[in-house]
Amino acid sequence: MFLHIDCNAYFASCEVATRPGLAGKPVVVANETENGGGVILALTAEAKALGLKRGIPLFQVRNLIKMNNVIICPVDHKKYRRISHQIMENVQRQEIVQDFVQYSVDEFFGTLPTDDPDELRHYATQVKEMIADTTSIPVSCGLSQSYTLAKVATHYAKHYKGYNGVCVLMPENRQKALSMLDIADIWGIGRQSRAKLYSLGIRTAQQLVESDEKLLMKIFSVSGLNTWRELRGIPCIDLHRPAKQRSIMQSRTFAYMTDDIKTLEQDIRTYAASCAAKLREQKSVCRTVQVFLSTNRHREDLAQYRNSIGVHLPSPTADTPTIVKAAVSALHGLYKEGFLYKQAGVILTNITEEEGMQLDLFSEPEDQRHRKLMQITDAINKKFGDDTINFGL
DNA sequence: TCTGGGGTCCTAGGACCC
DNA sequence: TCTGGGGTCCTAGGACCC
């Protein structure tokens, strides 16, 4: 049987776990910017009880936050990665869960070698309690015959107190569980698919399960069909993913809107350089540098423009100057006067392993000359912080 | 005033091959 | 009027995830 572990209100739980005095208080984690922007990313049960929700901009709830002394924690991804790594190691060391894989920063999957509901509940409870004891992070566990059904079980574990955080979904109670579940709560059904299914009169997971396979294939293609099969208890999702990222991205929504290409260029240079550093850290090279630019989509009164351009490099590289140069040229190709820009970013794609890299017969030996320099800057930044030293290009 | 950031996979369609 | 039949590879964009 498949096990799914989901950390409850993960970012907020990490803050409560690591900062004494936060327990029992309304806490929200937000990516606050210098001019008061930012949205709520995670919140504790106490904060939820006040009516706050994930995803709402802080400026809309300033009063509520002030009146109730809600604590705002700035988002700290490094901390969250560290704690999830710890959870990963602890569960593996415990040797109860098999094929344990990390799915995201706050979710894990594995299997248990039994289909006895009592044993499953017992094992999952042990894992859950071990995680709480060692990291103070509360988690919910779901168990069933496929990854998707295990996530359905976790949904119930989270929303019904009686489960004590562990829900086992067996074939005999599956129909009832799926009849009570809105299709929007199924893993793999997003906004677009939900709208299409609603218009066909399909609103519950059970109705989806009973729908015609060919119809679903026509509308949603293989990914939708996989979801349908998984809900019927036929596992067909493979979580084995390459260890290295296939794309590397950095982007920001600016505090202000700007039409100044010099300002944009400065930002693009910074993003490109930091993407290149990430690329080298995973010992990869890339062949395409993509840049995107966008106006403020929330301002309907202003002229809108968004676009992206991908620049192909003559040969795969992780060389900062080469990547930055490509990003800047892409930016100049994209930029149009007369718009106020709010967001920009750089994405590295067509990533391959550095080792066994195909060398271009005609490429310049520039890469070689920069290599030593980048090894040193990477080492310094790793030791003293990301922006300690950078390229003045 | 103020509205996140970082990923994956799939598909259609174009360009090209013989 | 009528205009092969297969393929592959690449990319942009959409949909989804957290």
Topology diagram in text:
Layout lengths: L1 E6 L2 H9 L8 E4 L9 E4 L1 H5 L12 H6 L3 E4 L2 H18 L3 E7 L2 E5 L5 H19 L3 E6 L2 H13 L6 E3 L2 H9 L11 H9 L5 H5 L3 H19 L16 E11 L2 H21 L2 E12 L10 E12 L2 H15 L6 E13 L12 H19 L9
Parallel strand pairs: 2-4, 7-8
Antiparallel strand pairs: 1-6, 1-7, 2-3, 5-6, 9-12, 10-11, 10-12
Helix pairs in contact: 4-5, 11-12
The protein binds a DNA duplex (18 and 18 nucleotides) through helix 8, helix 10 and strand 9.
Amount of helix: 40-55%
Apparent shape: globular
Mean pLDDT: 91
Q: Order of strands across the biggest sheet?
A: 5-6-1-7-8
Quaternary assembly:
single chain
Kindly report how far apart the N and C termini lie: 55 Å
Tally of domains: 3
Secondary structure class reads alpha+beta
What is the number of strand segments? 12
Our Rg estimate from Cα atoms comes to 24 Å
Order of helices and strands: EHEEHHEHEEHEHEHHHHEHEEHEH
* Largest β sheet strand count, sense and barrel closure: 5 strands, mixed
Number of helices: 13
Enumerate the spans where pLDDT stays under 50 for 5 or more consecutive residues: none
β-sheet strand percentage:
15-25%
Model description:
The chain is an alpha+beta fold and 393 residues long. The protein folds into three domains: 6-78, 3-Layer(aba) Sandwich (MutS, DNA mismatch repair protein, domain I), CATH 3.40.1170; 95-231, no CATH class; 248-384, Dna Ligase, domain 1, CATH 3.30.1490. It is built from 13 helices and twelve strands. The strands form three sheets. It has a five-stranded mixed beta sheet with strand order 5-6-1-7-8. Strands 9-12-10-11 form a four-stranded antiparallel beta sheet, covered by helices on one side. Strands 3-2-4 form a three-stranded mixed beta sheet. Strand 7, helix 6 and strand 8 form a beta-alpha-beta unit. It is globular and about 65 Å long. It starts with a strand and ends in a 9-residue tail after the last helix. The relative contact order is 0.09. It binds a DNA duplex (18 and 18 nucleotides) through helix 8, helix 10 and strand 9.
